[in-house]
Amino acid sequence: MEATKVLDAKGLACPMPIVRTKKAMNDLASGEILEIHATDKGAKNDLAAWAKSGGHELIKNEEAGDVLKFWIKKG
Questions:
Q1: In angstroms, rounded to a whole number, what is the distance separating the alpha carbons of residues 53 and 62?
Q2: N or C: which end of the chain has fewer CB within 10 A?
C-alpha cells in the first residue's frame, strides 16, 4: 500500500494519535493516503470511528508486533 505520508504516533496515549492524525490529514489532498503507526491499543477503535465521522476511508489496518498500522484515504 503506497502512502502519501507516514505519521509516527508510537508511544502516544489517547487522544494524541487522533490529534496528530487530524493535523496530518489537513496537509493531504482528497484521495491521498495517510499511513499511521501507533502503539496505543485504543487507536484501533478511535481511528476507525474518526475516519468514518470525518468522511475518510479506513482502507486497511494491521498489527506488526506492538505496532498498529492504519491506512486512511482522505475523503
A1: 21
A2: N
